[in-house]
């Protein structure tokens, strides 16, 4: 205080202190009710929300991809099965052939069995002898289960005579009119139903083994085009043409195959499913 009674400007300034004499910490004013706590407090971590969003996006993407793939698989067309050809053993008879009584060289060249058919009878065929054959036979082959093949076979003195007789017999075959003369008599017979060239089953060579397709059909070589009737073609030994064959469907479950080979003529009535296989397997 000054002598005049006024406080001194140089006097000490009193400050409030705590019990220990230190300055108490400042307390921030309380915010309004409902204000979120400041960052770094006891609330949800800052990284949780972005992670949850990423996981949700991945789940949705997986569901969408699954739906697309499922729909695509239903629209695709199934691939067709691959055709399978199985080579079957050459059929053999279940019955024993009978003994052939004729002993001429021509008769001895005739087979006792062809595929599953065995010789059941062999007798002279006077009707062909009367037509000019030097010798002729009527023969029956059986598979032992009811299927039969009936044949007429004969030998002529010359190839021209045998060919002329073949052509006379050909005129009587049902369905042979559908085959032109060029199909049945030309050197180059072409291919297809009319004019199939039998280079692959030459007389005197083994017949191809039968085959079965995936559908179960049995054919000589698995080639259905070669097994259609009627058809005709060349009879060959090696590269040389020695005759002509013609095969037709009689329409009663049997087929007829007629051919000549040099001086010999053959006519066989066979179950239609076997008619071409029988011809191809016949060794003469």
From TrEMBL:
Transmembrane segments: 47-70
Membrane as UniProt keyword: yes
Region of interest called Disordered, as start-end residue ranges on this chain: 1-42, 177-235
Biased composition (Polar residues): 1-17, 179-191, 210-222
Comp. bias (Basic and acidic residues): 196-205
Name recorded for this polypeptide: Uncharacterized protein
Keyword line: Membrane, Transmembrane, Transmembrane helix
Comp. bias regions, Pro residues: 25-39
Taxonomic path: Bacteria, Bacillati, Actinomycetota, Actinomycetes, Micrococcales
Membrane is among the record's keywords: yes
């Amino acid at each position: 205080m000054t002598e005049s009674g006024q406080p001194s400007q140089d006097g000490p300034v009193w400050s409030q202190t705590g019990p220990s004499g230190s300055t108490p910490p400042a307390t921030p004013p309380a915010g309004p009710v409902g204000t979120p706590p400041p960052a770094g407090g006891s609330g949800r971590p800052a990284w949780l929300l972005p992670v949850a969003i990423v996981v949700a996006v991945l789940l949705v993407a997986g569901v969408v991809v699954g739906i697309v793939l499922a729909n695509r698989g239903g629209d695709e067309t199934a691939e067709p099965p691959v055709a399978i050809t199985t080579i079957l053993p050459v059929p053999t008879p279940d019955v024993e052939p009978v003994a052939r009584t004729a002993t001429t060289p021509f008769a001895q060249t005739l087979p006792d069995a062809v595929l599953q058919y065995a010789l059941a009878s062999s007798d002279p065929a006077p009707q062909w002898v009367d037509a000019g054959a030097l010798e002729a036979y009527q023969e029956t082959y059986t598979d032992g289960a009811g299927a039969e093949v009936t044949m007429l076979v004969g030998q002529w003195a010359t190839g021209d005579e045998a060919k002329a007789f073949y052509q006379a017999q050909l005129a009587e075959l049902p369905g042979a009119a559908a085959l032109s003369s060029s199909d049945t008599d030309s050197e180059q017979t072409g291919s297809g139903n009319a004019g199939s060239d039998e280079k692959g089953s030459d007389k005197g060579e083994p017949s191809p083994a039968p085959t079965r397709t995936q559908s179960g059909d049995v054919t000589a070589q698995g080639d259905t085009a070669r097994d259609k009737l009627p058809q005709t073609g060349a009879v060959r030994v090696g590269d040389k043409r020695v005759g002509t064959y013609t095969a037709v469907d009689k329409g009663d479950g049997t087929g007829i195959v007629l051919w000549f080979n040099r001086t010999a003529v053959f006519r066989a009535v066979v179950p239609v499913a076997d008619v071409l296989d029988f011809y191809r397997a016949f060794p003469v």
